[in-house]
Amino acid sequence: MLDICLLGTGGMMPLPYRWLTAMMARCDGSSLLIDCGEGTQIALKEKGWSPKPIDVICFTHYHADHVSGLPGLLLTMGNAERTEPLLLIGPKGLKRVIDALRIIAPELPFEIRYLELSEPREQLKVGPYVIDAYRVNHGVICYGYTISIPRTGKFDLERAKSQNIPMKLWNRLQKGETIEQDGVCYTPEMVLGPARRGLKVTYCTDTRPVPVIAEYAADSDLFICEGMYGEDGKEAKAREKKHMTFYEAAKLAKEAQPKEMWLTHYSPSLTRPEEFIDKVREIFPRTIAAKDGRTVELEFDDNE
Ligand SMILES: [Zn+2]
Ligand SMILES: [Zn+2]
After folding, report:
1. Which ligand ends up closest to the CA of 63?
2. Catalytic member of 55, 65, 221, 292
3. Can you tell me the distance from the alpha carbon of 126 to that of 124, in angstroms, rounded to the nearest whole number?
4. For 38, 47, 283, 299, which has the most beta carbons within 10 A of its beta carbon?
5. Residue 128 reports pLDDT greater than 90
């Protein structure tokens, strides 16, 4: 239903064994990418997922490790003969940054559309995705993203009957169609019960721990969070560089209580992040020190 792949887990620079952090979501034939650092398209190739159906790319911010892979990815999407428009979402300066990168990828067989974020919190709907963007606290303007797949309510037979809705329309209404017939407008809400819990993934990197992150990560099926440093004595450096330690990430998770947290955006000096995982799990037990290509297939809960 919603496939998530953490394509890479590195911060600052790609390494021979670690690509830069980026996340891809797939749902109903539409793919969404968050961030595109140097080498993201190689990570995608390693995963075996096609870049062609990427309909949206969200940028957290414009540091090179999150954006410099874009020209190559656009050219590859062009070579795959993509013709549908591509939507780019990012903080203020989006078009200026992309235009500069596009100097080396000027001709593409598809249109690029821009959606520049200006408010501290914004919500938009693109294809199957509800995208929440919220401003965090880094050296430059930076946003975290929560990607949700909403789920409608169950078909409610009693409601449909009590409102005398023609039976032959039930199926179409249940699938989300609004139908006009004999001067009456029938909407899906007329035959559906209350909305059920959908799916929710929160991605947040390059920031100090700020309360808004826990707010959006709350009740997420998956919370992917920056953990730049795991070693002792890195707290001051994390503060200075506006990044987070594993333990700061775990405290956000403890507050938000997602089903699981994956750490990402490791410092290049941190070669074995899993060494620190026991200590992190003392704060938030359901933490994974993610490795490149870690994937999960999220499904709606059958019991709802
Ligand atoms: Zn970064
Ligand atoms: Zn950064």
Report:
1. 2
2. 65
3. 7
4. 38
5. yes
